[in-house]
Amino acid sequence: METLNTLISINLDYLTVALLVIFFTAENVFNTQFKFDKMGKHLLENIGFLIIITLLNLFWATVIVNGVDWLHNNQVGLFHYIDLPLWLSLILSVMLYDMANYWFHRLAHNVSFLWSFHRVHHSDSRMDASSNIRVHPIELVFYFGSSSFIMAAIFGLSTLGLGLYVIIIIPYVFIEHCNIKYPAWIDKTFGLVFTTPNFHRVHHDQDEFYTNSNYADIFILWDRIFGTFKYKQPEDIKLGLKEFDDQKQSFWYLMKTPFINIPRHSDTNLNSK
Ligand SMILES: [Zn+2]
Ligand SMILES: [Zn+2]
Questions:
Q1: Does 272 score more than 60 pLDDT?
Q2: In a domain, 71, yes or no
Q3: What is the distance in A from the centroid of ligand 1 to the CA of 147?
Q4: From the CA of 150, how far away is ligand 2's center (Å)?
Q5: What percent of the chain has pLDDT over 90?
Q6: Cross-strand bridge partners of residue 32
Q7: Do the domain assignments include residue 273?
Q8: Which of 15, 76, 83, 186 has its CA 20 to 30 A from that of 32?
Q9: What is the average per-residue pLDDT within 254-268?
Q10: In angstroms, what is the span from residue 182 Cα to ligand 1's centroid?
Q11: 131-161 in b/e burial notation, b at 16+ Cβ within 10 A?
């Protein structure tokens, strides 16, 4: 318990910066899946999002933690009426928060207003570890905040469970987006239950048939159960979105694009489910 408390008290901003350095270094040392140029510029553009998200979280993370804490202290949610050992409630918390994010992610692909923000993440034609922080700040408010509150309210999940989920998900999504070439056996073993980098790369494919698949962050089980799992050979994947060419990859353009460039039904992946 003490170890867990120490773990979740790690400053998440420091953790994110440390992971960014580690994975950026790894991508320059190990074999990469994709060959890109201008990676330094790409990193700097994506760091713009990290700065905004860090500033936003000074306020937003406090709101989420206090909200979830309030719900838990007021005995709201199912887990308060079931006698579960701590270890089991923590595993279930991580799984349930992940399942909530699966559904919010799926929603973000199917509701035009939400897609206009979420497609900023998909617009990246040079996917690497820094693509993970290319998230529009408004999406972060909707996505992470709503799913945390709803799951805490329904199941009575605690801030301890949320903290554990966050401390797992941050390095996990770095691994998922990292441009390292991973051996195929990972998909065939680990990938039976968990999302692998190759599975998430399929989600970043330009072909909308594949973009609308593999929504899960940690447990690919959700895609397998709810029928959205798809696979494509990594070497056949073409990253990004057709409507975001090289001229539309700058931080400033991506920040304003949801407000000036509302996606039409025909130029998004909203047609297919
Ligand atoms: Zn997506
Ligand atoms: Zn992604």
A1: no
A2: yes
A3: 15
A4: 23
A5: 55
A6: 180
A7: no
A8: 15
A9: 72
A10: 21
A11: bbbbbbbbbbbbbbbebbbebbbebbbbbbb
The ligand that comes nearest to the alpha carbon of residue 211 is 1
Containing 55, the helix (H) or strand (E) segment is helix 39-73
pLDDT of 206 higher than 70: yes
Task: State in Å: Cα 121 to ligand 1 middle.
Answer: 7
Q: What is the pLDDT of residue 8?
A: 64
Distance 267 CA to ligand 2 centre (A): 20
Q: pLDDT tens for residues 37-62?
A: 778 888 999 999 999 988 988 888 88
Residue 55 lies in a domain: yes
User: What mean pLDDT is predicted for residues 246-260?
Assistant: 89
Q: Measured in angstroms, how far is the CA atom of residue 78 from the centroid of ligand 2?
A: 31
Distance CA 265, CA 242 (A): 14
pLDDT over 80 at 68, yes or no: yes
Overall domain count for the chain: 1
Axis-axis angle for helices 112-122, 251-260 (nearest 10)? 170
Range of the domain at 165: 2-267
**How far does the centroid of ligand 1 lie from the alpha carbon of residue 88, in Å?**
29
Q: 61 CA to middle of ligand 2, Å?
A: 21
Closest CA to 147 of 78, 91, 80, 93: 93
Q: Whole-angstrom distance between the N-terminal and C-terminal Cα of the chain?
A: 42
Are 68 and 156 within 8 A, CB to CB?
no
**Number of CB atoms found within 10 A of residue 266's CB:** 7
The answer to whether position 272 is within a domain reads no
Could you give phi then psi for residue 239, rounded to 5 degrees? Answer: -80, 155
The residue among 181 and 31 whose pLDDT is bigger is 181
Answer whether 117's CB lies under 8 Å from 138's CB: yes
